[in-house]
Amino acid sequence: MPLSASLARGVAPTTPGVLHARTVTGELSAPPRQGLTVRFGRGEKPDVDLGVGVDDLRVSRRHGELTYRAGQWWLRNTGQ
After folding, report:
1. Do 79 and 62 contact (CB within 8 A), yes or no?
2. pTM of the predicted structure, to 2 decimals
3. Is the pLDDT of residue 12 over 70?
């Protein structure tokens, strides 16, 4: 990929800190709000907010989460 190519693929300019995520099965945008947690994995709503690896048994149903705190997004692996 050329250095000038964007991974955003058409995401409109937004406020710094906003989390944008896209997968084969969905997408989401989450504001940088203290304590907000976004859960992801191969499970379905309401257990996860974004499905990833939905056909991959190596991905846990609730594989991880991103939480906004202290002005940053923090990643936590919750998979087994």
Report:
1. yes
2. 0.81
3. yes
pLDDT higher than 70, residue 21: yes
* Three-state secondary structure string covering the chain: CCCCCCCCCCCCCCCCCCEEEECCCCEEEECCCCCCEEEEECCCCCCCCEECCCCCCCCCCCCEEEEEECCEEEEEECCC
How far from chain centre, in Å, is Cα 67? 10
What number of CA atoms fall less than 13 Å from residue 28's CA on the CB side?
Answer: 15
User: Could you give the CA distance from residue 70 to residue 49 in angstroms, rounded to a whole number?
Assistant: 22
The residue to which tokens 């989460």 are assigned: 65
